[in-house]
Structures are given as structure tokens and as C-alpha cells.
Amino acid sequence: MTNKDVQTLGQGLVGVSHFLGPRFVGAISKNKIRIKRYVIDVAKRLDEVCTLKAHKELEEKINKLRIPLCERMANKDEDGKPIMKPNPSMKDQMVYDIPDMDAFEKEGEKLYGDLLKQKEKTMQDRQEVIAKWEEEEATLGLYLISEEILPEDISSIQIEGIQWMIKEYLAEMESPLDKFPEKEIIKTEPIQRQIQSLKKN
Prior knowledge:
Layout: H1 3-15, H2 22-49, H3 53-73, E1 84-86, E2 94-96, H4 101-135, H5 156-161, H6 167-174, H7 191-200
Antiparallel strand pairs: 1-2
Helix pairs in contact: 1-2, 3-4
């Protein structure tokens, strides 16, 4: 199970939280707690490797240069104050009414273009660290259950979401494909044998 699978399992546990049954519910609740603790611990360790502090500091430096530029290049009201307008993409947010965005962006590039590149680089570095971590093997122990205690009305999609905590499904993931499992759910015969049986009848 990779760290990415842990995140998928966390979402899967939420999707089956409404089912009843003390043993099933108990395992689900315990694993939700363990995953939450695991994710918090990982977030702390990721922050040590690639902290967001540098990103926030760069954002503050950019804003110290950007806001005065916005105020200078925005349309002004009768009192000479910058005019604000609703943000088209976020209506509950106000932005400066800047008539010439091309000129504003060119000025911004001169003032804080290098800072923007540094900010983008810090986020790219962090995303690379996270992507690498997601593919690593998870160091998380889970409470396992048997498929015998699965709720009767659970769907295949819901089972797939929590398969890493079901003993039989873990065994199936590791079993060789050229052999039948010891405990078969549905016994099948080779197609040639089925055809021969039909011919005899």
C-alpha cells in the first residue's frame, strides 16, 4: 500500500461510515483515527523538508510591491482614492479597477518578477516532494477485518475503497494470477471442459 493508497482509503472510510455492525464500525473508526494521525505526522515531516514558510514570505514581499502598484494604476474616484470592483471569478472578493492590465503586468514584472519565479519554484519543489512521497510504501498499520463481517448491502465500489483493510482482498492482491485461490468465491471450469460437457448432453 502506497501513501497515495492511504489517502484513497481515507476517502473510502468516509464512504462507508453510515453502515452498522459493531465489529465493522469499530474497525472503520479505528482506522480513520490512525489515518488522521498518520497524515498529520506526514504533513509535519513534509514541512520540514519543503516548508511553506518560504512561500509565504515571498508572497508577503510581492504584496508589499504589488499593492502600491495597484493603487497607483487603478481608476480613481472623486476623492482620488483607488476604485474597487467585484472579482469576476470570485464575486464576494473585491479587486482594484485597473484599466490597462497589460501595462500593469509589465510594471509588475519589473518590480517583482523575480520574486514570482522564486515563489513558483518553491511550490514546484513541494509538489515534487509530495508526488515522490505518494508513490512510497506507507508505514501504517491498519485494523484488518474479514469479508464475513462486511455489510450485506455494501457496493463493490465501496469495497474497493476499503480493500486494504480486508484480509481476503489483501491476500488476493498478493496471490499469483496463474493459480486459483485456496478459497474460491465462484468455481469455474476451463471453457474446453464446458464445451465437451455440452456435446455429451
